[in-house]
Amino acid sequence: MGNRLDDNISSAANRTIVVTGGNSGIGRATASMLAGMDAQVVLAVRDPAKGRAAADAMRGTVDVRHLDLADLASVRAFAEEFTEPIDILINNAGIMAPPLGHTADGFESQFGTNHLGHFALTNLLLPQIRDRVVTISSIGHRMGTINFDDLNWERRPYKPMAAYGQSKLANLLFTSELQRRLTEVNAGVIATAAHPGLAATNLYRLQGNRLLASVTEAAIGLISQDEHQGAVPTLCAATADIPGNSYVGPRRFKETFGQPKLVGRSAAAKDAQVARRLWTVSEELTGVGFPEL
Predict the structure, then answer these.
(1) Which end of the chain lies in a sparser environment, N or C, as judged by fewer CB atoms within 10 Å?
(2) Is the CB of residue 171 less than 8 Å from the CB of residue 193?
(3) Do the Cβ atoms of 178 and 191 come closer than 8 Å?
């Protein structure tokens, strides 16, 4: 686990790579770097105008398509319209610690967007994916718990960061259960995960409290890396020669910055029984299941 992975990034040339949320932050940096490696990159974004602006600033072949992960109808429409083979799907888009809100389908916004939207998208696209699925988690997964009795914060006081932690823990549990299922059917596709550490992106622009947002941004700016450095773990998870269910993050100061390596995860993120239960519940909530491969 101590070996550097950035020397093991493979060529992305001529590979079709879908990046959700590719118009800003880590997603934009990831997409730009992959396009610069001659990949055929697709930005799957909620705001196509912002996506096109981001694409215009990138060197290489970059397409833009509409996808709103907070709306399962949009997820289904994207999957139905995307008929080309996909080499790598990077589940990058996410929101962090907003005030209590809900997706178009009534799910708490962070759980619905960060986990359920990507869960549905991945399973709908999986028959077209040829290499791997990369899902972006966070060091914040360590403060998360999966509360099956109240996944949508309907009966307990809403805590934005706790809800964020739940969604990021769900990302890792999803990755491990997806890998188990892929292995079971000898799919030839792997599932990996990554986290950027602390990266100075607009993800930390907390909503609803301007003073807290300003203080948080200032503090993170002092100790964080830029979005391109934060994107390197994603590149490794997407292209390096690593096994399924690998988790890549920065190596220094409790995984907050530095060169990438394979990192550990919380005990809760290793619970296979919870991972299987979460998968079943996610199928019930989204109406999307693991496809025949």
Answers:
(1) N
(2) yes
(3) yes
E strand intervals along the chain? 16-20, 40-45, 61-66, 86-91, 129-136, 190-194, 247-252, 257-262
Q: What backbone phi and psi angles, to 5 degrees, belong to 102? A: -135, 150
Task: Tell me the percentage of the chain whose pLDDT exceeds 70.
Answer: 87
Domain ranges, ordered by start, for the chain: 6-284
Looking up tokens 């709306």 gives 71
Coil vs helix vs strand at 26: helix
Q: Which residues of 81-106 are buried (b: 16+ CB within 10 A; e: fewer)?
A: ebeeebbbbbbbbbbbbeeeeebebe
pTM of this structure: 0.91
> Domain 6-284 belongs to what architecture?
3-Layer(aba) Sandwich (3.40)
- Average the pLDDT over 47-51 and give the result: 98
Which is catalytic among the residues 158, 164, 204, 247?
164
Is 204 designated active site?
no
